[in-house]
Amino acid sequence: MKQLKPGAIIALAIPLVFIGLVVLQLLSGGREEIAFLPTPVVAHTPSIRTIEEQITFSGNLRPETTAMVIPKVSGRIIELLVSEGDVVTQDQVIARLDDQVLQLQAQQARSAYEAAESQYQKAVQGARPEEVANAQASLNQARQDLETAQNNFERTENLYRAGTISQARFEEAQNGFQNAQTQVNNAERSLNLLIEGARSEDVQTARAQAEGALRQFELAELQLSYAQITSPVTGRIARVLADEGNLASPQSPLFSVISEGTIFANIPVPEGLYGRFLLTSDTIGVRVRPIAYPGEIPFLASISRIGSTIDPGTRTFEVEVGVENRQDLLRPGMYVNVDFTLATLEEALVLPARAVLQREGRRIVFAFEPAEGNRGTARIVPIVPGGETRDFVQILEGIEPSTQIIVNGNSFLEDGQPVRSVEVAQ
């Protein structure tokens, strides 16, 4: 059974005491005195102590990044190498696609590149010695053929003028001589081209074709590598979104990966605290208490970002806090309470938080004005509060350290109401 705090016991006991007094009055026949029975309360003076001015808000944890793993090429999934919850490193292969078509495309691109590169190197380096020799031999043969054709033409021309052969024979010899001359010219040009080498524009064209073929080969190799699906970040597999045998495509993600290490919470904070957070964020202490670990020591955190806008609907701004995920205990989506320590107040005049009430838009306390014995009067005293914690409120103005303040039984009191102190703690 949960043990109650002393203050809670006192607060619970006061109504019981009051009921006991009423019953006692009824049994004794004092009906007229019941209306004037003083309300039992607990009062004591403020205390001087060091407190941490602290406020608490709630939110949910989220990872630093969530990466969706989407394939860059289409293909059938032949192997999934990870499961949900597995820790992965950046560039680790986590799935494989069928890559047979991509391999054939890469081989074709490689062959085309090698052929284009060979033509470019040939244009740069010029003809080989054996090619020049063959061209020279062809020219020599063409010259011999020209000499033979010329002799035959001259002999045939003499016979034609003498009228011993027909015109057809003469024209045939004439054509043979002209063809032989053309062959010599062609052979000379071919030999000169081999000796001089390719023109600069031809070399540039061959180079451009080789570079274009290289880019196509590199693209094919890159697409082939895309068949190996890798993790874009170091983190944990949050979800596996496909099964082996499914067809993967660039339109459908296969995995979601959340980053490891620092984890974050986005906390909505009331607008009234914006200036204080913005100006003193470096000195504000932060502790995160996940409800999943109620008995654990709070996680130390720090403010990583303060929102630049105010939500007009909720009148809040966003404070992002970063938490070191010690021992890998925190998970995205966990609900957490975040304690912000705004300041440490030394030797502060404080009252229990239950002693400070809100009445008609102002903060007040009830002072106990003693009369006869332990009886007295409850008096409203407006106060100016300072720093606050879950248990205490600093009092800046309104009361003195010696003022007795009602700390229990004050919820329904009115100014000037008779009260009876059942306990006065100095």
Labels describing this entry:
6-stranded antiparallel beta barrel, alpha+beta, 426 residues, OB fold (Dihydrolipoamide Acetyltransferase, E2P), conserved putative lor/sdh protein from methanococcus maripaludis s2 fold, rod-shaped, single chain, 3 domains, 35% strand
CATH topology of the largest domain: conserved putative lor/sdh protein from methanococcus maripaludis s2 fold
Task: Give the total of beta strands.
Answer: 22
Q: If helices are DSSP runs of H or I spanning 4 or more residues, what is the number of helices?
A: 7
Are there runs of 5+ residues with pLDDT below 50, and where?
A: 29-34
Ends apart, CA distance between termini: 31 Å
The proportion of residues in beta strands is 25-35%
Give me the secondary-structure category.
alpha+beta
What's the arrangement of strands in the largest beta sheet?
Answer: 16-17-18-22-1-21
Task: Tell me what the CATH architecture of the largest domain is.
Answer: Beta Barrel
Helix content: 25-40%
Question: Could you tell me the radius of gyration in angstroms?
Answer: 49 Å
Shape: rod-shaped
- Give the SSE order as H and E letters: HHEEEEEEHHHHEEEEEHEEEEEEEEEEE
Chain-averaged pLDDT:
86
Instruction: Describe the largest sheet.
Output: 6 strands, mixed
Provide the number of structural domains.
Answer: 3
Give a nutshell description of this structure.
This protein has helices at residues 6-28, 31-34, 100-125, 129-161, 167-196, 200-225, 274-280, and strands at 39-44, 47-63, 66-69, 75-80, 87-88, 93-97, 228-230, 235-240, 247-248, 255-259, 262-270, 285-290, 299-306, 316-324, 335-352, 357-359, 362-370, 375-382, 384-388, 392-397, 405-408, 418-425.
